[in-house]
Design a protein that fits this description.
The chain has 342 residues and is α/β, with parallel strands linked by helices. Helices cover 39% and strands 18% of the residues.
Protein backbone atom coordinates (compact mmCIF):
# COMPACT_ATOMS: atom_id res chain seq x y z
CA UNK A 1 0.00 0.00 0.00
CA UNK A 2 1.14 3.55 -0.69
CA UNK A 3 1.96 5.23 2.60
CA UNK A 4 0.62 8.60 3.70
CA UNK A 5 0.29 7.59 7.35
CA UNK A 6 3.47 9.04 8.78
CA UNK A 7 7.01 10.06 7.96
CA UNK A 8 7.88 7.52 10.67
CA UNK A 9 6.71 4.83 8.25
CA UNK A 10 9.07 5.81 5.44
CA UNK A 11 12.41 4.10 4.95
CA UNK A 12 15.94 5.36 5.46
CA UNK A 13 17.54 7.79 3.03
CA UNK A 14 20.11 5.90 0.92
CA UNK A 15 22.88 8.28 1.95
CA UNK A 16 22.07 7.74 5.61
CA UNK A 17 22.00 3.99 5.10
CA UNK A 18 25.42 4.19 3.45
CA UNK A 19 26.72 6.25 6.38
CA UNK A 20 25.49 3.57 8.77
CA UNK A 21 27.36 0.99 6.73
CA UNK A 22 30.58 2.99 6.94
CA UNK A 23 30.15 3.50 10.69
CA UNK A 24 29.70 -0.24 11.09
CA UNK A 25 33.26 -0.97 10.01
CA UNK A 26 35.58 -1.98 12.80
CA UNK A 27 35.41 -0.99 16.45
CA UNK A 28 34.59 2.34 18.11
CA UNK A 29 34.63 3.54 21.68
CA UNK A 30 31.27 3.24 23.42
CA UNK A 31 28.84 5.82 24.84
CA UNK A 32 29.74 8.60 22.41
CA UNK A 33 33.51 8.66 22.83
CA UNK A 34 34.03 7.98 19.12
CA UNK A 35 34.96 9.92 15.99
CA UNK A 36 31.44 9.77 14.50
CA UNK A 37 29.95 11.51 17.53
CA UNK A 38 32.75 14.07 17.51
CA UNK A 39 31.99 14.75 13.85
CA UNK A 40 28.26 15.13 14.55
CA UNK A 41 28.99 17.51 17.41
CA UNK A 42 31.14 19.58 15.04
CA UNK A 43 28.47 19.83 12.34
CA UNK A 44 25.87 20.85 14.92
CA UNK A 45 28.23 23.63 16.02
CA UNK A 46 28.65 24.65 12.39
CA UNK A 47 24.87 24.91 12.23
CA UNK A 48 24.16 26.59 15.57
CA UNK A 49 27.45 28.11 16.75
CA UNK A 50 29.91 27.07 19.44
CA UNK A 51 27.86 28.04 22.50
CA UNK A 52 25.76 24.87 22.48
CA UNK A 53 25.76 21.42 24.01
CA UNK A 54 24.31 18.54 21.99
CA UNK A 55 23.33 15.07 23.14
CA UNK A 56 21.85 12.15 21.22
CA UNK A 57 18.78 10.13 22.18
CA UNK A 58 16.99 7.11 20.82
CA UNK A 59 13.58 8.60 20.10
CA UNK A 60 11.48 11.74 20.18
CA UNK A 61 9.70 11.01 23.44
CA UNK A 62 13.04 10.50 25.16
CA UNK A 63 14.43 13.72 23.71
CA UNK A 64 11.38 15.75 24.72
CA UNK A 65 11.06 14.34 28.21
CA UNK A 66 14.75 14.64 29.04
CA UNK A 67 15.01 18.11 27.53
CA UNK A 68 12.16 19.22 29.78
CA UNK A 69 13.41 17.25 32.77
CA UNK A 70 16.66 19.18 32.65
CA UNK A 71 14.64 22.40 33.08
CA UNK A 72 11.93 21.62 35.62
CA UNK A 73 11.29 19.83 38.89
CA UNK A 74 8.28 17.84 40.02
CA UNK A 75 6.45 20.82 41.54
CA UNK A 76 6.77 22.80 38.30
CA UNK A 77 4.41 22.97 35.33
CA UNK A 78 5.01 22.96 31.59
CA UNK A 79 2.66 25.08 29.48
CA UNK A 80 1.83 23.65 26.05
CA UNK A 81 -0.87 23.22 23.44
CA UNK A 82 -3.67 20.72 24.02
CA UNK A 83 -2.52 19.21 20.73
CA UNK A 84 1.13 18.93 21.79
CA UNK A 85 2.81 15.60 21.29
CA UNK A 86 3.99 15.67 24.91
CA UNK A 87 0.33 15.91 25.97
CA UNK A 88 -1.40 13.59 23.50
CA UNK A 89 1.04 11.01 22.19
CA UNK A 90 3.60 10.22 24.88
CA UNK A 91 1.43 8.15 27.22
CA UNK A 92 1.91 10.58 30.07
CA UNK A 93 5.70 10.23 29.88
CA UNK A 94 6.44 13.83 30.97
CA UNK A 95 4.21 13.50 34.03
CA UNK A 96 5.46 10.01 34.83
CA UNK A 97 9.15 10.73 34.37
CA UNK A 98 9.35 14.32 35.63
CA UNK A 99 6.41 14.26 38.01
CA UNK A 100 5.38 17.73 36.84
CA UNK A 101 2.05 19.00 35.57
CA UNK A 102 1.20 19.93 31.98
CA UNK A 103 -0.96 23.03 31.66
CA UNK A 104 -2.62 22.83 28.25
CA UNK A 105 -4.08 25.58 26.10
CA UNK A 106 -6.65 25.30 23.27
CA UNK A 107 -5.02 25.61 19.86
CA UNK A 108 -6.89 24.41 16.76
CA UNK A 109 -3.72 24.76 14.65
CA UNK A 110 -1.31 23.56 17.33
CA UNK A 111 0.12 27.02 18.04
CA UNK A 112 -0.12 28.94 21.30
CA UNK A 113 0.34 32.67 21.95
CA UNK A 114 1.70 34.83 24.78
CA UNK A 115 -1.84 36.15 25.39
CA UNK A 116 -2.97 32.60 26.17
CA UNK A 117 0.00 31.94 28.44
CA UNK A 118 -0.18 35.11 30.55
CA UNK A 119 -3.23 34.15 32.71
CA UNK A 120 -1.47 30.94 33.79
CA UNK A 121 1.45 32.92 35.19
CA UNK A 122 -0.72 34.15 38.07
CA UNK A 123 0.11 30.83 39.74
CA UNK A 124 3.74 31.81 40.17
CA UNK A 125 4.56 32.24 43.85
CA UNK A 126 1.32 30.61 45.04
CA UNK A 127 2.30 27.60 47.12
CA UNK A 128 -0.94 25.75 46.36
CA UNK A 129 -0.32 25.70 42.60
CA UNK A 130 2.13 23.96 40.32
CA UNK A 131 4.71 26.57 39.35
CA UNK A 132 4.92 27.38 35.61
CA UNK A 133 8.57 26.92 34.67
CA UNK A 134 8.66 26.11 30.96
CA UNK A 135 6.71 26.70 27.77
CA UNK A 136 6.90 23.92 25.20
CA UNK A 137 6.03 24.47 21.53
CA UNK A 138 6.14 22.14 18.54
CA UNK A 139 7.82 23.24 15.29
CA UNK A 140 6.20 22.39 12.89
CA UNK A 141 3.01 21.85 14.88
CA UNK A 142 1.01 18.67 15.05
CA UNK A 143 -1.44 20.29 12.62
CA UNK A 144 1.21 21.04 10.03
CA UNK A 145 1.60 24.76 10.69
CA UNK A 146 4.79 26.70 11.48
CA UNK A 147 5.74 29.32 14.08
CA UNK A 148 7.41 32.38 12.59
CA UNK A 149 10.63 33.65 14.21
CA UNK A 150 8.67 36.58 15.69
CA UNK A 151 6.10 34.23 17.22
CA UNK A 152 8.83 32.15 18.83
CA UNK A 153 10.60 35.25 20.10
CA UNK A 154 7.41 36.59 21.70
CA UNK A 155 6.96 33.36 23.68
CA UNK A 156 10.64 33.25 24.65
CA UNK A 157 10.59 36.86 25.84
CA UNK A 158 7.53 36.15 27.97
CA UNK A 159 9.09 33.00 29.42
CA UNK A 160 12.40 34.66 30.26
CA UNK A 161 10.72 37.71 31.79
CA UNK A 162 9.07 35.35 34.28
CA UNK A 163 12.08 33.17 35.07
CA UNK A 164 10.95 30.40 32.73
CA UNK A 165 12.42 28.42 29.83
CA UNK A 166 11.27 27.84 26.25
CA UNK A 167 11.48 24.27 24.95
CA UNK A 168 10.93 23.39 21.30
CA UNK A 169 9.83 19.96 20.09
CA UNK A 170 11.48 19.94 16.68
CA UNK A 171 10.53 16.49 15.46
CA UNK A 172 9.79 18.17 12.11
CA UNK A 173 12.16 21.12 12.48
CA UNK A 174 13.57 20.47 9.01
CA UNK A 175 10.13 20.91 7.45
CA UNK A 176 9.66 24.16 9.36
CA UNK A 177 13.05 25.47 8.22
CA UNK A 178 12.29 24.49 4.63
CA UNK A 179 8.95 26.32 4.72
CA UNK A 180 10.27 29.49 6.36
CA UNK A 181 13.29 29.70 4.08
CA UNK A 182 15.43 31.29 6.79
CA UNK A 183 18.47 30.20 8.76
CA UNK A 184 17.35 27.70 11.38
CA UNK A 185 18.90 29.94 14.05
CA UNK A 186 16.33 32.63 13.26
CA UNK A 187 13.56 30.64 14.95
CA UNK A 188 15.64 28.70 17.51
CA UNK A 189 18.84 30.12 19.02
CA UNK A 190 18.30 33.74 17.96
CA UNK A 191 14.61 33.65 18.91
CA UNK A 192 15.39 32.64 22.50
CA UNK A 193 14.81 28.87 22.52
CA UNK A 194 16.62 27.31 25.48
CA UNK A 195 16.37 23.62 24.61
CA UNK A 196 15.55 22.03 21.26
CA UNK A 197 14.64 18.47 20.33
CA UNK A 198 16.15 18.23 16.84
CA UNK A 199 14.33 15.55 14.87
CA UNK A 200 15.99 13.00 12.64
CA UNK A 201 13.70 9.98 12.45
CA UNK A 202 10.89 11.73 10.58
CA UNK A 203 13.35 13.14 8.04
CA UNK A 204 14.99 10.02 6.65
CA UNK A 205 17.07 8.66 9.52
CA UNK A 206 16.70 5.11 10.79
CA UNK A 207 16.35 6.29 14.37
CA UNK A 208 17.66 8.96 16.68
CA UNK A 209 17.05 12.52 17.84
CA UNK A 210 19.32 15.22 19.26
CA UNK A 211 18.82 17.46 22.28
CA UNK A 212 20.47 20.86 21.76
CA UNK A 213 21.04 23.35 24.57
CA UNK A 214 21.66 26.98 23.58
CA UNK A 215 23.60 29.72 25.37
CA UNK A 216 25.30 27.22 27.65
CA UNK A 217 28.03 29.62 28.80
CA UNK A 218 25.41 31.83 30.46
CA UNK A 219 23.20 28.95 31.67
CA UNK A 220 25.37 25.84 32.13
CA UNK A 221 23.31 23.89 34.67
CA UNK A 222 20.71 22.17 32.44
CA UNK A 223 23.28 20.82 29.98
CA UNK A 224 25.73 19.80 32.71
CA UNK A 225 22.98 17.75 34.40
CA UNK A 226 21.81 16.18 31.17
CA UNK A 227 24.37 13.33 30.80
CA UNK A 228 23.29 11.89 34.15
CA UNK A 229 19.59 12.30 33.41
CA UNK A 230 20.08 10.60 30.04
CA UNK A 231 21.75 7.58 31.64
CA UNK A 232 19.26 7.36 34.49
CA UNK A 233 16.33 7.59 32.09
CA UNK A 234 17.41 4.82 29.70
CA UNK A 235 18.42 6.98 26.71
CA UNK A 236 22.21 6.58 26.71
CA UNK A 237 23.21 4.41 23.76
CA UNK A 238 26.33 2.33 24.16
CA UNK A 239 26.83 2.22 20.38
CA UNK A 240 26.29 5.95 19.97
CA UNK A 241 28.00 6.03 16.58
CA UNK A 242 24.89 4.61 14.91
CA UNK A 243 22.90 7.74 15.78
CA UNK A 244 25.64 10.34 15.47
CA UNK A 245 26.87 9.13 12.07
CA UNK A 246 23.38 9.70 10.69
CA UNK A 247 23.25 13.28 11.93
CA UNK A 248 26.72 13.95 10.55
CA UNK A 249 25.57 12.77 7.12
CA UNK A 250 22.29 14.67 7.26
CA UNK A 251 23.77 17.98 8.36
CA UNK A 252 27.16 18.26 6.68
CA UNK A 253 25.90 19.49 3.29
CA UNK A 254 22.19 20.22 3.69
CA UNK A 255 20.64 16.81 3.10
CA UNK A 256 18.26 17.44 6.02
CA UNK A 257 16.82 20.50 4.25
CA UNK A 258 16.80 18.89 0.81
CA UNK A 259 14.73 15.99 2.14
CA UNK A 260 12.34 18.31 3.97
CA UNK A 261 11.85 20.55 0.94
CA UNK A 262 10.83 17.53 -1.10
CA UNK A 263 8.38 16.30 1.54
CA UNK A 264 6.87 19.79 1.81
CA UNK A 265 6.57 20.08 -1.97
CA UNK A 266 4.74 16.74 -2.16
CA UNK A 267 2.33 17.92 0.55
CA UNK A 268 1.65 21.11 -1.42
CA UNK A 269 1.02 19.09 -4.57
CA UNK A 270 -1.33 16.79 -2.66
CA UNK A 271 -3.25 19.70 -1.13
CA UNK A 272 -3.67 21.48 -4.47
CA UNK A 273 -4.95 18.31 -6.08
CA UNK A 274 -7.41 17.49 -3.32
CA UNK A 275 -8.80 21.02 -3.22
CA UNK A 276 -10.02 20.45 -6.79
CA UNK A 277 -11.86 17.22 -5.89
CA UNK A 278 -15.55 17.55 -5.09
CA UNK A 279 -16.34 16.57 -1.50
CA UNK A 280 -12.76 16.97 -0.26
CA UNK A 281 -11.88 19.91 2.01
CA UNK A 282 -8.33 20.70 3.08
CA UNK A 283 -8.75 22.06 6.60
CA UNK A 284 -5.26 23.32 7.51
CA UNK A 285 -2.68 25.71 6.14
CA UNK A 286 -0.25 23.33 4.49
CA UNK A 287 3.06 24.75 5.63
CA UNK A 288 5.07 21.61 6.33
CA UNK A 289 4.57 18.04 5.13
CA UNK A 290 1.11 17.26 6.53
CA UNK A 291 -2.28 17.65 4.85
CA UNK A 292 -5.49 17.40 6.87
CA UNK A 293 -8.55 16.79 4.76
CA UNK A 294 -12.25 16.30 5.53
CA UNK A 295 -14.20 13.77 3.50
CA UNK A 296 -17.11 11.41 3.94
CA UNK A 297 -16.60 8.25 6.05
CA UNK A 298 -17.49 6.16 2.99
CA UNK A 299 -14.72 7.78 0.96
CA UNK A 300 -12.25 7.23 3.80
CA UNK A 301 -13.12 3.52 3.84
CA UNK A 302 -12.62 3.16 0.09
CA UNK A 303 -9.32 5.04 0.06
CA UNK A 304 -7.93 3.09 3.01
CA UNK A 305 -8.24 -0.06 0.91
CA UNK A 306 -5.47 1.34 -1.33
CA UNK A 307 -3.59 3.81 0.85
CA UNK A 308 -2.21 3.76 4.36
CA UNK A 309 -3.29 6.88 6.30
CA UNK A 310 -4.81 7.75 9.64
CA UNK A 311 -8.17 9.24 10.56
CA UNK A 312 -7.18 12.30 12.59
CA UNK A 313 -10.62 13.21 13.97
CA UNK A 314 -13.39 10.69 13.41
CA UNK A 315 -16.06 13.08 14.68
CA UNK A 316 -15.16 15.59 11.95
CA UNK A 317 -14.27 12.93 9.34
CA UNK A 318 -10.78 14.38 9.02
CA UNK A 319 -7.87 12.34 7.70
CA UNK A 320 -4.17 13.14 8.06
CA UNK A 321 -1.88 12.61 5.07
CA UNK A 322 1.87 12.87 5.62
CA UNK A 323 4.53 13.11 2.91
CA UNK A 324 8.13 12.02 3.32
CA UNK A 325 11.52 12.45 1.71
CA UNK A 326 10.75 9.51 -0.56
CA UNK A 327 7.12 10.31 -1.47
CA UNK A 328 6.85 10.49 -5.25
CA UNK A 329 4.73 12.65 -7.52
CA UNK A 330 3.22 9.46 -8.93
CA UNK A 331 2.06 8.39 -5.45
CA UNK A 332 0.55 11.81 -4.78
CA UNK A 333 -1.25 11.84 -8.13
CA UNK A 334 -2.51 8.29 -7.54
CA UNK A 335 -4.15 9.39 -4.29
CA UNK A 336 -5.73 12.43 -5.91
CA UNK A 337 -7.10 10.29 -8.75
CA UNK A 338 -8.43 7.66 -6.35
CA UNK A 339 -10.08 10.38 -4.23
CA UNK A 340 -11.83 11.73 -7.32
CA UNK A 341 -13.30 8.36 -8.19
CA UNK A 342 -13.90 6.92 -4.73
Amino acid sequence: MINFASDNASGVHPRVLAALGRANEGFARAYGDDRHTAEADAVFKTLFGDDIAVFYAINGTGANVLGLKSLVRSYHAVICSQMAHINVDETGAPEASIGCKLLTLPSPNGKITPEQVKPLLAAQGVVHHSQPKAISITQATEFGEVYTPDEVRALADLAHAHGMFLHMDGARIANAAAFLGVDVNAFTRDAGVDVLSFGGTKNGMMFGEAVVFFNVSANPVPSSDFPYLRKQNLQLLSKMRYVSCQFAEMLRDGLWLESARHANAMAQRLARGLEAVSGMTVVNRVEANEVFVAMSPERIDVLQEQFYFYVWDASLHQARLVCSFNTTEAEVDAFIAAAATA
